[in-house]
Design brief:
Largest sheet: 5 strands, parallel
Radius of gyration: 22 Å
Helix content: 40-55%
Number of domains: 2
CATH architecture of the largest domain: 3-Layer(aba) Sandwich
Length: about 260
Amino acid sequence: MDASEEPLPPVIYTMENKPIVTCAGDQNLFTSVYPTLSQQLPREPMEWRRSYGRAPKMIHLESNFVQFKEELLPKEGNKALLTFPFLHIYWTECCDTEVYKATVKDDLTKWQNVLKAHSSVDWLIVIVENDAKKKNKTNILPRTSIVDKIRNDFCNKQSDRCVVLSDPLKDSSRTQESWNAFLTKLRTLLLMSFTKNLGKFEDDMRTLREKRTEPGWSFCEYFMVQEELAFVFEMLQQFEDALVQYDELDALFSQYVVNFGAGGA
């Protein structure tokens, strides 16, 4: 969470964009679980229920996991979805009372304050339990105690926003059960955030389209907005929905040309 980070490179919109998830906290810890996480996340489909009576669909979620930086958080007025971080995860394997009080608690506080400042409400705290590390520590809290402490300090009435991942690199039934529970929570939160923010984006797009008869309305600007929606559907492998956006743009442009020729645009 260093403010002196170098400026981010420009985002290139491609058909291979994935929903962005930021990762704060222990980066080495996240790096160790990333291979398994990236493989397991898209394996189980999730039912995607959308508004306006549209039929639910089964989708496989993938994500682009990036290191948390404040510069990634959307600024006021920026409604782009392809660069929008849909979920923020804080990773820790702290089980030492002194370490928690000295560093982790303060770092978590700073992280949550940055999110609140940008009205980012979609987040998750992951506590990785590692039996091998526990054996080498003296100031150990029982796992339930450290989880309860973090939940009391940061989760308030959202206790489900703090989850435990037990020995993620082991090959055991306990580890697999822990992975399954974590992945279900991650998919659920990611899909909830995606559905909410996509709904806002579509509402704003409809509002913009309804202004097409007003002076100064730009088809080119509107095209960029609806094309981004097509990219978003492509990102979820909803190819028919993506093509519908271009069909609608084609019809809108045809009408725009007719109106322009008639002096109405």
